[in-house]
Write a structure and sequence with these properties.
It is built from 18 helices and four strands. The chain has 440 residues and is an all-alpha fold. The chain has a four-stranded mixed beta sheet with strand order 1-2-3-4, with no helix packed on it.
């Protein structure tokens, strides 16, 4: 990701500078405003990008964007897009998969544009940072008010009538959002310093409260992963603790993969074909995994999905096609749902189904490159590296249990927060900043 710590507002007239600052504020508020719903996030961020592109500085910005796409992470992302082309061509629905592929390109370009815009404009970067910290605190407060019985207040924010509604049902997705925001809010608050730094420390207990009140397992593992990976990244910036921290991170990832592999290996087999009548299975289910670890229906989803990958192991069934594969519409009477109701609830399984082992290997290459980049940044700025790796930990572990990988608003959470963090990285990592841990 390209970044440059310079200001590009000097040659702009006052109205154009105001437009740039408004767009920066909207960029910072976009992800926290998911408390109001995915549509609000889309409108706010979409408007922000439009405002960025209408300013006279867009020419230089687009040149910077082209340079960014040539960075190591940019090239690995292009490799993933290329690796997904066979999955689009061989998809159960090529046009639908092509739309998902094209949307992924659009989201990646938009995130890169955000990073370049904020990196080139120190004033806009400062406003976006303050808007994100303030927005996260305000939106977390609104979520807690709703969960504490003040749902009519939250209803107004979500565009609903001023009356009580089932907050947990409508807001459960926000638990994973809060987990992703936690390391970002903490570190950006540290960079702002003063009252911002003290206020940022309010967010972790608020995020934990939101996760627990929403009873979100994905949110819990996201918070734990954010704390663990962020902490290890922070200490990797200390020469004396670098080997210990990197070894701990490798051990953590290794144990996680071994644990997932064991769960996948013990997932139940699909329901016997001779007991399926008129597309419905009314029999009992095997639950080889403990129910406290994974509920019975999710075990069936994982078992069926993993079994289905054997039929198309290399390029899969097509992007975002996991709930359209043959047999996915089998109705399970006990749950009154299909065996794959929407997606596999695990991004690794979903990517294998959709793009095969080739697509998964390419995507894991990107994840590895991103982790390596944040560890490199941590050597210069421990706080920033901790935020970046903490965000990765929260996003990718939460995604093992929650939403479809292809969900636009969920991808946007990761991409926009990553872009804002990357905008704080100096162009030359070799030139260490003065006192990177100093509270300004």
């Amino acid at each position: 990701m390209a970044v440059a710590s310079t200001s590009t507002t000097a040659n702009l007239t006052r109205p154009w500078r105001a437009i740039q600052f408004i767009s920066a504020g909207l960029l910072g508020m976009g992800v926290p405003l998911l408390v109001s719903g995915p549509s609000t996030e889309a409108v706010v961020l979409g408007l922000a990008i439009i405002l960025v592109l209408v300013t006279p500085a867009r020419g230089a910005l687009l040149i910077n964007l082209a340079e960014t796409l040539k960075s190591p992470i940019g090239l690995t992302l292009m490799a993933v897009l290329v690796a997904w082309i066979p999955s689009v061509a061989l998809s159960l629905s090529p046009l639908q998969s092509l739309a998902i592929w094209g949307r992924s390109i659009g989201l990646l370009i938009a995130a890169s544009l955000i990073a370049c815009f904020l990196a080139r404009n120190s004033g806009a970067r400062d406003i976006a940072t303050k808007a994100l910290v303030l927005g996260a605190l305000v939106c977390a407060t609104l979520a807690l008010i709703g969960l504490a019985g003040g749902s009519p207040v939250l209803a107004l924010i979500r565009g609903l009538p001023f009356e009580s509604f089932e907050v947990v049902h409508f807001l459960k997705y926000y638990a994973s959002v809060a987990a992703c925001l936690m390391p970002v809010v903490l570190v950006l608050g540290h960079k702002l310093g003063g009252a911002w730094w003290r206020a940022a420390w309010l967010y972790p207990p608020m995020a934990l409260s939101i996760v627990l009140l929403l009873n979100s397992g994905a949110g819990v593992v996201g918070l734990v992963a954010a704390a663990a990976t962020g902490g290890l990244a922070y200490f990797s910036g200390t020469p004396r603790l670098r080997r210990f921290s990197l070894g701990g991170l490798a051990l953590l990832i290794g144990l996680g993969l071994v644990g997932l592999g064991s769960m996948f290996a013990h997932a139940p087999a699909p329901p016997p074909a001779d007991l399926i009548v008129d597309g419905r299975y009314e029999g009992s289910f095997e639950t080889p995994l403990p129910l406290w670890l994974l509920d019975a229906h999710r075990q069936q989803i994982w078992g069926f999905s993993l079994d289905a990958t054997l039929n198309r192991p290399w390029f899969g069934y097509g992007l975002d096609r996991s709930n359209y594969i043959p047999g996915a519409d089998l109705m399970l009477t006990e749950f009154n749902q299909t065996i794959v109701p929407a997606h596999p609830h695990n991004w690794l399984i979903e990517i294998i189904i959709d793009s095969g082992f080739i697509g998964l290997a390419a995507l894991l290459g990107v994840v590895g490159a991103i982790i390596a980049r944040w560890l490199q940044i941590a050597r210069q700025d421990r706080w920033l590296g901790a935020a970046g790796l903490g965000l990765c930990g929260a996003f990718f572990t939460s995604s093992l249990l929650n939403f479809s990988f292809w969900t636009t608003w969920w991808q946007t959470v990761f991409l926009v927060l990553s872009a804002i963090l990357m905008a704080h990285v100096p162009r030359r990592l070799g030139a260490a900043p003065a006192n990177p841990d100093r509270r300004v």
